[in-house]
Amino acid sequence: AQLLRLTIGKLSDIGITVLAVTSDATAHSVQMAKALGIHIDGDNMKCTFQHPSSSSQQIAYFFDSCHLLRLIRNAFQNFQSIQFINGTAHWQHLVELVALGEQELANMERLPRKLANLKNHVLKMNCAAQVFSDSVASALECLLSLGLPSFQNCIGTIHFLRLVNNLFDIFNSRNCYGKGLKGPLLPEAYSKINRVLIEAKTIFVTLSDASNNQIIKGKRKLGFLGFLLNAES
Hints:
The chain has 233 residues and is mainly alpha-helical. The chain has nine helices and five strands. The strands form two sheets. It has a three-stranded mixed sheet. It has a two-stranded antiparallel sheet with strand order 4-5. The radius of gyration is 19 Å and the shape is elongated. The two termini are 18 Å apart.
C-alpha cells in the first residue's frame, strides 16, 4: 500500500493523474486494499481511497474481473447449489449439459470444447468465462423447452449464469465499438449498466448455500463482494 501511494505521488509529480487502481483478487491484494482504506463489506462498502498528493481527489479501486469470475466459478462448484431470491442455481446442470455431448447439442448451441473438462477438473480462467456465458444459458433454455427431465428446474441456473455474464461484460469492456454491455462506459449507457449493477447487489446479498449460510459472510465471498466493490467504483 505504501509503495502504491508513493508511485501515485511520483506520477502526479510528472503530470499524470491516477483515477483508478486495479489489482488481482488475492488475499494479499485484499490486505493492500484494506490498508489503503477500502472497505470490502456488503453492509459497509467503501470503494475509494485518498489521493496521496491531492486532498480533494479520491481514487477508485477495482478487482480484476477475470480473477473474480474464476472465484465465483470455484465457489459455485464447491457449493454445488446457490440459493437466491429468484431461485436456485445448480452446478449439476452444467455437468449434465457436458454429458449430453457436443453432437447432440449441435443444432441448439455450439459449446466450447473445453467445457468437456467441467466435471473432473478445475477450469482455467478463460474457461470460467465460457461457463458464465449467454451461449451456455441459451443451451439450458433450449433443453428446458425440450422437456428433458434433468433440466426442468434450471431457470435459477440460467438466471445466475446470465447475471454473472453481464457483470463480466461490463467490467471487461475494452472495445470502443462494442455493443450492449460489452460497449464502453458512456453516460448514455448508464441506465442499462446501472440496472445490472442494482440487480447484482440485490441478489448477491441474498446468496446462500444449501445449508442456508449466507455466502457473502463466508470463506468464498470475495468473488461476489469483489463485483459489488467494482459496481460501487
